[in-house]
Structures are given as structure tokens and as C-alpha cells.
Amino acid sequence: MNLEENIPEFGLKRENEERRDGGCGVVLDPETQKYAVGKQTADGLFRLFSGGVEPTEDIQEGVLREVIEESGLNDFLYVEKIAEAFTHYHNSLRNVNRVAKATCFLVVLKGSNPINTKLEEHEKFTLAWATAEEILSNWESRNENKDYDHWIYFLKKSVSRAKELGYDTASTI
Q1: Which end of the chain is more exposed for a tag (fewer CB within 10 A), N or C?
Q2: What is the pTM (predicted TM-score) of this model?
């Protein structure tokens, strides 16, 4: 794969990887100082709201669409592109090996009242709220296959930026 300059690469290369570019949102409620995540019903894994973006779709619009579709959260105060990464991972919801250029956005909420969502068949998670430390611990405890390295990278960069902007005053990561 021809990787673009200065974009880090994460994860372990696997056989039969499908290419599916997309992105994710690190979603912060500044009032509670907690982050919105999807909590998988089967094993309690925290997930960023994320998904593939069509080649003709603007990456920011596509990521915000995924955040709304998966979480119901839709009242955004601030959105900023934080980082890009190439990532190799096993998509456990679809049971497929993937490689992707992923783009992460910090999404600061104005309000945290979600609208109703209708998740796709493979999306078996619910909206949950957690501190950055709780999310990081959740991922690090299950990261033996390096599937969450890119999310860890995105979370740390997003928390750092949220702190710079004065939104996250509670996190210590």
C-alpha cells in the first residue's frame, strides 16, 4: 500500500484485508466531562462512533453522520479534525479484516439529549458515557492484537486538544 507521508500506521497487517476508508468522532460533553462511546452489549468493549465514508462524501460530514446514526447525539458546538492514521484491524462487528485511512474528529457537544437511533443489524452497542481514563483502560486491557492502537492514538490527541481549548478539565491522560 502506498501510504501518505507523515500519517502514522497502526495495527497488525492481516490476510485478506478489505480497504474501507472512514473515520470516527471522539465526542465530549463539556458539562459532565465525559465522552460518548458505544458500549458493546456482548463484552462491554467501548467503541468510538465510526464508520466508512463513501468516496464522494465529505469526510467530516460522513463522520458526523455516523455519530448521529450510531449515538443519536446531534447538537454539536465544535468540530475539529484531529488526526489521520492508516490502520489494520479486525472489524469484530462485521467479522472482517480491514485496512483503512481513518480520520478522527473531536466533537464537542452543545447538548447531550440524543434522538432515537436505528442501528444496523451488525451494530450491537448502546450509548454510554465514560471518562477518558475509563475508555483508555477498556481498550488497553483488550489490545493484544493491536486492534485499538489507532483509537488510543486518536483519544489521546483529542483529549490533548480538548484541554487546549478549555473543554476537558478532568482528564489526566
Answers
A1: N
A2: 0.93
